């Protein structure tokens, strides 16, 4: 861990989850906003294709047009994703699941996947 002192108390762990979730939500919203703007416009007018919508947004509002409504989406996604991260960590703490438990689980799943893939190749 980069900041091991943050993992010492449950409150700081949960605070880190909230902040990490908010950052993840905002970052994913910024990345997906242009596509969401195009899809929203296409939904409003079902007879228009994506290229036409992109050109229409670009010609009418320029690059800023693709980020219209970004603030409200960032707030919504930041709150929702931080809540999901928080609930995940609360559940993990309540069930006393450690990082080693998760690694073991993923190793087992990976070996099952690999085994089924190899058996499919053999026969």
Q: What form results from the Cα inertia axes?
A: flat
Work out the helix count: 4
- Mind describing the biggest β-sheet? none
Task: Indicate the proportion of strand residues.
Answer: under 5%
Order of helices and strands: HHHH
Distance between the termini: 44 Å
Total E-strand runs: 0
Fraction of residues in helix: over 70%
Helix and strand content put the structural class at mainly alpha
Characterise the protein shown here:
With 123 residues, the protein is an all-alpha fold. Helix content is 78%, strand content 0%. The longest helix has 35 residues.
Walk me through the topology.
Elements: H1 10-44, H2 50-61, H3 70-94, H4 99-122
Helix pairs in contact: 1-2, 1-3
For this entry, give a set of tags.
about 120 residues, mainly alpha, 4 helices
Quick summary of this structure?
It is built from 4 helices and no strands.
């Amino acid at each position: 861990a980069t900041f091991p002192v943050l993992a010492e108390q449950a409150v700081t762990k949960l605070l880190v989850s909230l902040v990490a979730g908010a950052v993840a939500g905002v970052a994913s919203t910024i990345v997906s906003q242009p596509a969401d703007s195009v899809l929203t416009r296409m939904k409003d007018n079902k007879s228009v294709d994506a290229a036409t919508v992109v050109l229409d947004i670009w010609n009418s509002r320029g690059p800023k047009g693709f980020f219209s409504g970004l603030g409200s989406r960032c707030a919504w996604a930041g709150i929702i994703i931080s809540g999901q991260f928080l609930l995940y960590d609360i559940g993990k703490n309540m069930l006393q699941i450690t990082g080693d438990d998760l690694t073991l689980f993923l190793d087992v799943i990976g070996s099952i996947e690999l085994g089924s893939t190899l058996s499919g190749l053999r026969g």
